[in-house]
């Protein structure tokens, strides 16, 4: 809940002090250029291997909550969902400008496969970049 107090629309610290001061406070400008600027892509890179079976519902719910919050601001230009699995041929990337379509993708996330080699987390990150 602490993290939501930073950015929740209308009441969070970001709303209260503005993006410039918020960025200064958290030293975001040193490594993040325009990271608080509207009309950016909201990207999720999610492990959907079988080992995530106990966690995928929580990942799904939290991701949907974040998308719903971001949609309220109207500042998201693209929603990008990248999943990684093993083998790497099971990795996927999807992109849309419609938050509802993105939420549908998240609702259909399932943990499958895995167990035969380490997950390709870095490959998932590289693919989405």
From TrEMBL:
The keyword Secreted applies. It comes from the Eukaryota. Residues 41-125 form the Hemicentin-1-like von Willebrand factor A domain. Its main location: secreted. Transmembrane segments: none annotated. It is found in: Secreted. Keywords: Secreted, Signal. InterPro entries: HMCN1-like_VWA, VWA7, vWFA_dom_sf. Pfam families: VWA_4. SUPFAM superfamilies: vWA-like (SSF53300). PANTHER family: NG37 (PTHR14905), VWFA DOMAIN-CONTAINING PROTEIN (PTHR14905:SF21). This is Hemicentin-1-like von Willebrand factor A domain-containing protein. It comes from Tegillarca granosa (Malaysian cockle). The lineage of its organism: Eukaryota, Metazoa, Spiralia, Lophotrochozoa, Mollusca.
């Amino acid at each position: 809940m602490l993290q939501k107090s930073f950015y929740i629309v209308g009441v969070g610290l970001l709303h209260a002090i503005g993006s410039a001061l918020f960025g200064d406070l958290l030293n975001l400008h040193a490594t993040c250029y325009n990271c608080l600027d509207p009309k950016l892509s909201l990207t999720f890179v999610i492990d959907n291997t079988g080992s995530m079976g106990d966690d995928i519902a929580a990942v799904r719910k939290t991701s949907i909550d974040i998308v719903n919050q971001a949609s309220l601001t109207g500042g998201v230009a693209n929603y990008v969902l990248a999943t990684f699995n093993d083998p790497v041929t099971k990795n996927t990337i999807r992109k849309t400008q419609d938050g509802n379509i993105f939420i549908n993708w998240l609702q259909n996330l399932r943990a499958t496969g895995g167990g035969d080699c380490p997950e390709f987390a870095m490959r998932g990150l590289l693919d989405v970049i």
